[in-house]
Amino acid sequence: xxxxxxxxxxxxxxxxxxxxxxxxxxxxxxxxxxxxxxxxxxxxxxxxxxxxxxxxxxxxxxxxxxxxxxxxxxxxxxxxxxxxxxxxxxxxxxxxxxxxxxxxxxxxxxxxxxxxxxxxxxxxxxxxxxxxxxxxxxxxxxxxxxxxxxxxxxxxxxxxxxxxxxxxxxxxxxxxxxxxxxxxxxxxxxxxxxxxxxxxxxxxxxxxxxxxxxxxxxxxxxxxxxxxxxxxxxxxxxxxxxxxxxxxxxxxxxxxxxxxxxxxxxxxxxxxxxxxxxxxxxxxxxxxxxxxxxxxxxxxxxxxxxxxxxxxxxxxxxxxxxxxxxxxxxxxxxxxxxxxxxxxxxxxxxxxxxxxxxxxxxxxxxxxxxxxxxxx
Length: 376
Known about the structure:
The chain has 376 residues and is of the alpha/beta class. It has 15 helices and twelve strands. The strands form three sheets. An eight-stranded mixed beta sheet has the order 1-12-11-10-2-7-6-3, with helices on both faces. Strands 4-5 form a two-stranded antiparallel sheet. Strands 8-9 form a two-stranded antiparallel sheet. Helix 3 packs across helix 4 and helix 5 runs parallel beside helix 8.
């Protein structure tokens, strides 16, 4: 997990000072301290005359859109805004606070883990583009050119009239939290109205519940629990693992990591659905790295190419019972890292969600439906 290291601000300020001296023709003696000298910039007015420390402080309060606008006002501000260290600083500062991340916006974590003052890395990476692609507030404004075949595929999907998409929902967050996400969904008609409970069965597993998104888009969720209700509740209260009837565990002798096979009924479900929803217990301190390794193995078992195409999306709901200081959560970036989602060929998204209020659920649902070709 990336963290903001002490001294990162001074690195950015040092870069700003070099840019200011270069553009305004200030020459410093060798071995001179790299500090701002206002007398060296006499004649400058307005924001230009401010020490670079103050200029940097002002920038930390601006939105990405405002920063980009500032960069278009002069050659000097353009040089500052283009400095890679500024945007790497913002990434390190803001990534842990964002409520979602996906396969397109996930930054290069290897570059971020390196120290900010490693100039060779900073100069070779466009951290501004990384930030604008990853920031939830900017994703809708960040238009990347898509290959022609992707554009054609998206158009053809929108022309095909199909039945409502179906999604298989599973994961420990359905069973371990004090407040049930599914129960709240069933009792929140103002957020996701229930349009019906289908009676059709797939090898004894019901085909789920149909919901309506935004008053016009119907979809079906098939909830897969690991075992019956009484066993799940006992395991939750006693904080113990429950034996899952969805998977059969077998150890990989070469890697020593868990590998799962699907129960026959679950195999048929995976062949029938259009995507997957994995619910994570995101309450801080509740999940170990060993548990996340197991969860990654369960996800990969569900997404095996033998059950369907790798174009089917995976929505990860990083879920807590409540929100607020009394219920701290694991950042969605850390969830994506610990689940090794970047290794998956499928499109994926991690969305912070709250079971009590369903906060974040509609954002995740919109992404999921769009991935199936719905125009929303």
